Amino acid sequence: MSENSLLEPIHGITLKDYSAACAKLGNGLSEAAIAKALGVELPVWQCIKTRFFYLI
Q1: What is the DSSP string of 2-47?
Q2: What pTM was computed for the model?
């Protein structure tokens, strides 16, 4: 376990995965498609997105 909570995955999604997903969102990919690509349900993706947003 890392001492930096920002580096800990949220629901199995790493900061690297999150940042890549945000880049895809910026390029027009839907949140539903992001969630599917990450292997999580849409509400889980929305939770992950919110939690990382407040960490950063």
Answers
A1: -S-GGGS-BTTB-HHHHHHHHHHHHTT--HHHHHHHHTS-HHHHHH
A2: 0.84
Domain count, the chain: 1
Phi, psi at 2, each rounded to 5°: -80, 150
Containing domain of residue 13, as a range? Answer: 5-55
| CA distance linking residue 49 with residue 24, whole number of Å | 13
pLDDT one-digit tens code per residue, 6-25: 679 999 999 999 999 999 99
Q: Is 18 exposed, middle or buried (0-12, 13-18, 19+ CB in 10 A)?
A: buried
